[in-house]
Design goal:
alpha/beta, 287 residues, two-stranded antiparallel sheet, 42% helix, 12 helices, 20% strand, elongated
Length: 287
């Protein structure tokens, strides 16, 4: 049962509780997001009228959200939304939560293509929520984008997100690791992917809110073949990438050089690029 509180009391209690599992900065950002989403209250509203009593309905919703967060459930799943490339997207337990480093990969592709006049055909392998495809389509509207994923549930959400942003993208359920499926796919100017790349043995090192809630299908690869998706993409690109086509990949920071080496034999140029934190997280390939 919700104990009646003022806006200031409820906000302060929420923030203090969250600091049990988050830093002050993260806890503050999450608290502000939750109050705006669940109670339509911005921090300025609370500062203007701290003594105002919150309604029991809003108070109960805020408290219910807090209990879920204290179980380490990511705020994006609790609220059902995430932000990516200045877009609000729907997310659920069937898709990865979009990450800032993936935004950097998308930014690189968009920057590379902005000056070109052609309408590129682009394949997004492991599309998940559709965040990569939708961001590209909104910024390169003439591009023809296809997103593939093995998860039907992920594709349902990606389709919903694309419709919400009026982005025309073709989504297809397909197991990319099964090479017999490749014959159904045409030629492309660009391939982009943030595939699974975390070996199962690294699971114990990960935060509970990632390994406990995000889809393992989209995160983990077998310990014995940690680069399996990159091996398949390198092989696929040889027959499905047009001349001077490009591949944009996000990768494990500890395996960027191994990943790059997979492409060096059959491709013109292979470049490792660091993210904003100085980690080697991107591979850029030219056919």
């Amino acid at each position: 049962m919700f104990a009646v509180m003022t806006l200031k009391e409820l906000y302060r209690n929420f923030l203090v509780q969250l600091q049990k599992i988050y830093s002050l900065g993260e806890a503050t950002a999450i608290t502000d997001w939750v109050f705006e989403k669940t109670a339509s209250l911005k921090r300025t509203d609370i500062l203007k009228d701290p003594g105002k009593m919150i309604t029991p309905v809003a108070g109960n919703l805020v408290q219910k959200t807090l209990q879920e967060l204290l179980l380490h459930k990511p705020v994006q799943y609790v609220l059902g939304e995430a932000w990516f490339y200045n877009m609000k997207l729907k997310v659920n337990e069937h898709v990865l939560i979009p990450r800032p480093e993936t935004e950097e990969l998308v930014e690189q592709l968009i920057k590379d293509r902005k000056s070109k006049l052609t309408d590129p055909a682009i394949l997004d392998i492991g599309t998940g929520s559709g965040c990569i495809s939708i961001a590209i389509k909104k910024n390169l509207p003439a591009s023809k984008i296809s997103g593939i994923d093995i998860s039907r549930d992920a594709l349902l959400l990606a389709t919903e997100n694309a419709a919400m942003h009026h982005a025309q993208i073709t989504f297809t359920e397909l197991d990319f690791l099964n090479e017999s499926n490749w014959k159904s796919l045409p030629m492309y100017d660009i391939i982009i992917s943030n595939p699974p790349y975390i070996p199962v043995q690294e699971k114990d090192k990960m935060e509970e809110r990632v390994k406990g809630f995000e889809p393992h299908l989209a995160l983990f690869v077998p310990d014995g073949s940690p680069l399996i998706f990159y091996e398949k993409i390198a092989a696929f690109g040889k027959d499905h990438l047009l001349s001077n086509g490009k591949i944009y990949l996000e990768t494990h920071e500890d395996r960027a050089h191994e990943t790059a080496d997979l492409f060096r034999k059959d491709y013109q140029t292979v470049m490792i690029k660091k993210d904003l934190y100085g980690k080697e997280r991107m591979i850029l390939v030219t056919a």
